[in-house]
Amino acid sequence: MNKIQHNELIDLSKDYCNTFCALYRLNTQDEAEIDKIYKQIKIKLIDTKMFLPSQILEVICNVAKLNNRYMKSYWELFRKTAENYKIQQIFSSTYNQSKYKTYESYLKERYIKYFIWDEIYFEKEEKTNDKNKNINYSLDIHESNPICRSLVLDDLGSFIFYTEQDGFDKYQRVKSNFYPYSLLGYSLLELCCYYGAIRCFKFLRTKFNSEITEKCLQFSFLSGVPDIMNECLKFQRPYKECMECAIISHNIDFVSFLMNEYHLKIDLEDCCRYHNLQVYLMYLDITKDINNCFVLSPSFHFPELCKYLISHGANVNAIGHSSKTHLCYSAVNSSRETVDYITTYGVNFVRDYNYEWFAIMDAAWNNSAEIAEILISHGARIDSHGINEKTACHIAIERNSIETIKVFVAHKDLINDSTLHLALIYDKEEIAKFLILNGININTHDNNGKTPLHIVADGNKTEMAELLISHGANINLTDKNDETALHYALKYDRKEMTELLISHGVNIDAKDKDGKTALHIAAERNNKEIAEFLISHGANLEETDNEGKSALDYAIRYDRKEIEKLLISYGANINAQVINGESAAITNRTNNEGKTFSQYYHNFINYTFSNCIII
């Protein structure tokens, strides 16, 4: 077995390391320099098939949040990548010419929204556009906060000016979506450390004796200004968060310093998360922990690294410190080439590695369709239950992994009957439409007896209901409470859904387990408009529930006066209550004006006739 040669790996990964170092340590707004970095990314990372263009877009956004002084420079990299590769779908949103004036306006919106909403919520916020109409998609993140702008530029003169104004609060904290997440926000001194604003830093320490916090020290490793770092080290001791910031900075000297002086350990997952292959290789050289390094190696999207480690003795079925295997990380990172390669070395495709999660679930989570296909072809089951009893299909739907769902549907024997229900519950319309159009059983019941039509009726999704009905959905199927889709529509006052179901011939007088019809529910909920619509389409006014009560009984019981008038005007039998044994209770009850129902009824009749126009 060949011994691992550190220098060989350094040479092998030189282009990769240099490219990511340039991206993370970007410190220019010069167009020529930005274009140079873009070409480096294009040639070394995208054109080599290591990364998809869409993956690079996400990397750029993540790095920009860690170095937001150069937000506009990262925007240029983002724009150039998207435009050059004509990417039409970014972070769950598809480019729609009717919605955006230009493609660039679409790109800018997605770039800014990446910071405002996590990508897992992108699709949800797209469906509630009204709340986003007033968002300012500006790349000048401190245009409304001049104090922060002076810190970005380390403009001591303007900073002093602002501190001398009435109302200046030396304890103020700044919160922004454009910074790494913080529940409480950051102090002015912490932001000095983030931006490397040494002059403003010294002023705050001298003038206000601003406190040096742990976050100050962490950010000092991020910005890399020695004077700030040395001052912070006088008051705070480094912990693992400082090592994380040193890894982010792509400054191997900082990492070595923390290891040698403070005995901090390298977190390999941080190396992967921040694309710091150089520190990862240093860890491998020091520890010789080839198997754990191999397990995580797909995270770098660098197939040659995986091949090198296998050729030097890595176990393809090794389980890493995270209780995951190389195969799982390959699925997470859509590393088709590495999966194809390890197939020839006897990798176990079926074994679950922590009894709660499977490689096929990682493929579903990250929409790695090609990996999912390979895993299934080698025996992986998409219907195996993992954490929270979820299957790979559940996860693909939650994550809106449409391409992976298409792979799963091609193996229909592995798809269970709840798949369409889940797509509708999670409001994944594209997946739901795909399933319906590809022949999934649309009349199946879930554990509560609900059909897909019940779910869309509950959610008032008329377009989806139309699609289901047009593909054979039975509109009169009931759940375990004997409720039809019409009952669901009525319970939540879904007028459009009610009209749709009736137009398709739903049984308007169908009863639930308590004997209630749609008209009973409309009366109970005091929905006059729907009640009148039901009556005009043939609803039986005299249908009674299991206790013998009609819709009029419900209107009287719940004091729905407008419904009472409506039902009586359409001929509801006011004497029926005698047969039901409740004559005294109903006809003698008084309203708020002290009148009995009989008095109220006679007044109503008199009023009706007195206002008639005889023609």
Strand order, sheet with most strands:
1-2
Characterize the biggest β-sheet. 2 strands, antiparallel
Rg: 33 Å
Strand segment tally: 4
Strand percentage lies at under 5%
Instruction: Specify the structural class.
Output: mainly alpha
* Overall form: globular
**Oligomer, anyone?**
single chain
Terminal CA distance: 108 Å
Helix % is: 40-55%
Unreliable residue stretches: 118-134, 578-594, 604-615
Average per-residue pLDDT, rounded, comes to 87
Count every helix, treating DSSP H or I runs of 4 or more residues as helices: 38
Describe the structure.
The chain has 615 residues and is an all-alpha fold. Helix content is 54%, strand content 1%. Among the domains are: 122 residues, no CATH class; 84 residues, Serine Threonine Protein Phosphatase 5, Tetratricopeptide repeat; 108 residues, Alpha Horseshoe (Serine Threonine Protein Phosphatase 5, Tetratricopeptide repeat), CATH 1.25.40. The strands form 2 sheets. Strands 1-2 form a two-stranded antiparallel ribbon. Strands 3-4 form a two-stranded antiparallel sheet. The longest helix is centred in the N-terminal third of the chain and has 16 residues. The termini are far apart.
How are the SSEs placed, and which strands pair?
Layout: H1 6-12, H2 14-24, H3 31-46, H4 53-66, H5 71-84, E1 89-90, E2 93-94, H6 103-116, H7 122-126, H8 146-152, H9 156-163, E3 173-174, E4 186-187, H10 188-195, H11 198-208, H12 214-223, H13 226-233, H14 240-248, H15 252-262, H16 268-273, H17 277-287, H18 290-296, H19 303-311, H20 326-332, H21 336-343, H22 359-365, H23 369-377, H24 392-398, H25 402-409, H26 419-425, H27 429-437, H28 452-458, H29 462-470, H30 485-491, H31 495-503, H32 518-524, H33 528-536, H34 551-557, H35 561-569, H36 576-579, H37 583-587, H38 597-610
Antiparallel strand pairs: 1-2, 3-4
